[in-house]
Amino acid sequence: MFKKLPILLSMTFILLTFTACNREDDIEEIFTGKTWYMNGATINGLRLNSDVANFYTNAGEGAYYITFSSSTFNGELSDGNTFAGTWSADGKNQTISLRFTTTPNADTTFDQQLRSILTSIRGYSSGADFLQLKQDGSNIIYFGNTRSKVIN
Question: Across the strands, what pairs with 28?
């Protein structure tokens, strides 16, 4: 029995190594048919806590979202500042490309910062209830699968 234990452990290790290398995100599950609601941002490495209040106002209730179909996306920054385009993603490398056909107007500094990140997105991270669209490690927009509670 003890002679077979090292062989058994070696085979288990090899099996785990090969299965870990083949992880690839299910792009359809993450994006297609989903609406993601913005709930925060990091600009130049700083979390915009005070600006995030925009997401929790009555004016922000119908805004700050992005919806993906099989090949297109649309969304809205602050009220009435819509955007749209086409998208593609690579689940193995967690990269995404957004090609805008309609770029949002940006009436506020906050919207200008969000637009700057959205128009140069390179990657994403995701889980069951969150999505992060990343320009780089210090510029990220955070999304949730439900809208945060509106504060009056």
Answer: none
Distance CA 62, CA 37 (A): 10
* Cβ-proximal residues to 20 (8 Å cutoff; 6+ apart), any chain: none
Q: Where are the alpha helices (DSSP H) in 5-102?
A: 5-21, 27-30
What distance in Å separates the CA atoms of residue 114 and residue 118, rounded to the nearest whole number? 6
Q: Using the structure block, give the residue that is written with the tokens 């700057």.
A: 116
Give the pLDDT confidence of 97-151 residue by residue, as tens digits: 999 999 988 888 888 888 999 999 999 999 989 999 999 889 999 998 887 654 4
Domain ranges of the chain: 25-144
Please tell me the class of the 25-144 domain.
mainly beta
Q: Does the model's pTM come out above 0.85? A: no
